[in-house]
Prior knowledge:
Elements: E1 2-6, E2 10-17, E3 28-36, H1 38-48, E4 53-59, H2 61-73, E5 77-82, E6 88-95, E7 101-105, H3 113-126, E8 132-136, H4 147-157, E9 161-165, H5 168-175, E10 181-185, H6 186-193, H7 200-214, E11 218-222, E12 228-232, E13 235-240, H8 252-266, H9 270-284, H10 295-302, E14 306-309
Parallel strand pairs: 1-4, 1-8, 2-6, 4-5, 8-9, 9-10, 10-11
Antiparallel strand pairs: 2-3, 6-7, 11-12, 12-13, 13-14
Amino acid sequence: MIFTVTLNPSLDKYFVVDHVRSDAVNRGTIKEVNAGGKGINVSRFLKAFSVDSVILTFVGGYVGQTIMKALVESGFSVMDFQSEGNTRENITLFSEENSEIYKLNEFGPTISADELEKFLSTVAELADAGDIWVLSGSLPPGVSNDIYVRMIEILHEKKAQVLIDSSRSALRSAVSVQPDFIHMNADEVAEFCGKEIADRDSLVQAVEDLMEQYSFEGLLCSLGEDGALLAFGQEIYHIAAPNVWVVSTTGAGDAMVSAFLFALKKGCSVEEMGRWAVAAGTTKVTIPGTDVFKMEDVQANLSKTKVNKIK
C-alpha cells in the first residue's frame, strides 16, 4: 500500500483574470477548486494511474470540512487529524493579459502536541513491511523540523520505504536519517551540496555525490522543461521532456512523484520509471491549477520522451 502524508494541506483555488493591477480590485473567475497539499496531490495523481493510496492529513474549521468532503466524495481513503484553526487556502491567479501566474499561499494553522503524538502513534500502527510512505510538503507553523525524522525512524523500524519531497530545513533534517527515495529540483541539489551547478555535468556529479553520501535507493531530480535526472542504484538517466504549451506548473512535481511510484510498483526498469515521471510532469503543465490529467494523455507524452543513459 502507498500512504501519503500532508501535514499542511490546503484548499487550492485557481482564478483566471483579465489582468493584475496593484492598488485596484482584480476580478476574475474561479476555474478550479481542489483539495491540495503535496501528499494529497500525489494521491490524486495516483488515482489517475488506478493506484490506491491512503491519505493522512490534518484538517480544521470549515475549510478542513470542505477538503474532507471533497476527498471522501472522490473515493479516497482518508485518515484525518485535527489542526487548531482553519486549514489554509492557496490562491493561484492566471493573467490572460501576459500569461503570468501569481501565487499566494497561507502559512496554515498550528497543530497541538497531543494531536501530533496521536498522529505518530497511528503511523506506527499502520506501517508494515513493503509499504511506501510519501512524506511531502511544508510544515505547519510550530511543528519542529524533526517531524519527518521521527516518521522515517518509525517507518524504517517497520521495514516500510519512504519517499521524501520537502524543502529547506525540513528536507535537510529528513535526509540525515536516509529516506529510501527523494525528489528534488536542481536548485535544491545545489543548496544541499553547497556548490554552484554550472552545467549538466556538474549537476550529475552533485547527484552522484548525494547518492553516495546518503545511500538513497533513488533520487529524482526535476529539471523543468529539460525533463529530469533519475539516479537509481548504480544507474543515472537523463530523460528529456517533449515540447508542450505550459498552462500551469502547479503540481507538476507531485505528478512526477506519482508516476515514479506507479512505475516502481509495476516493476519497471529505471529508464521506464524516469520516462513515466517526465511524461506525467509534462502532461500536468498543460492543464490548469491542480487539475488531474488523464492516463491516455500521459501515455501519449510517454512515447515522446527521449532517454540518455549517463551511467
